[in-house]
Design goal:
Oligomer: single chain
Number of strands: 3
Number of helices: 4
Radius of gyration: 22 Å
Distance between the termini: 31 Å
Largest sheet: 3 strands, antiparallel
Order of helices and strands: EEEHHHH
Helix content: 55-70%
Length: about 190
């Protein structure tokens, strides 16, 4: 067999395979390729480093939030969302409060939002699964993307005129004290290990 060893990276060293190899088996007319990485797992205790918690903790929480919130949005629809949203006047909006045109507009916006959320619902588990269990070299790029997403959430929050809602404040504190330190910390660690 022909073997070539790719350069080792810190993220790849998180798995038991510190020297992943690309192997070509020549079996007559067929060449069989094995992937240039080995399957990784958070349960692979031989290669587990405590810094991996910075990847697994927020990714797991985000997956759980995705499952619960997407299910609630999908089952309950825009009426439920409007009724749970407190407006600046401190009253809840009901479907009956809206004109016929406003109802149509809300439903169209809701449809676009649900398509975008469904895409996130497909891509987040795929990325966590791929980075977590298939190719550990994808963990730093995943954490970079999630760090950027968290900064976008912060930017949109602070563009509001009223940021005094206690529920929103608790979400922002979660971003500041959990998501950003974990995702951003993993990015900084992976850059420092290069």
């Amino acid at each position: 067999p022909i073997q070539s060893n790719p350069p080792s990276s810190p993220a790849r060293n998180n798995c038991a395979s510190t020297a992943a190899t690309l192997t070509v088996h020549n079996t007559g007319s067929n060449n069989e390729f094995s992937p240039p990485y080995r399957h990784c797992s958070m349960f692979d205790l031989a290669g587990f480093k405590p810094v991996e918690i910075l990847f697994w903790a927020p990714a797991t929480v985000d997956l759980m939030l995705l499952v619960t919130t997407f299910t609630m949005f999908l089952l309950n629809g825009p009426e439920w969302y409007l009724e749970t949203t407190v407006m600046p006047e401190k009253r809840r909006i009901k479907r009956g409060d809206l004109s016929a045109q406003a109802v149509i507009a809300v439903e169209e916006v809701w449809e676009v939002l649900m398509v975008a959320y469904a895409a996130y619902g497909v891509l987040l588990p795929l990325c966590v699964g791929w980075a977590g269990f298939v190719d550990a070299t994808m963990r730093p790029p995943f954490c970079v993307a999630m760090t950027i997403l968290m900064f976008c959430k912060l930017a949109f929050f602070y563009r509001r005129k009223d940021t005094s809602n206690t529920m929103d404040q608790s979400k922002i504190k979660s971003l500041f004290y959990f998501d950003l330190p974990c995702y951003g910390g993993y990015v900084l660690w992976s850059v420092a290990m290069r």
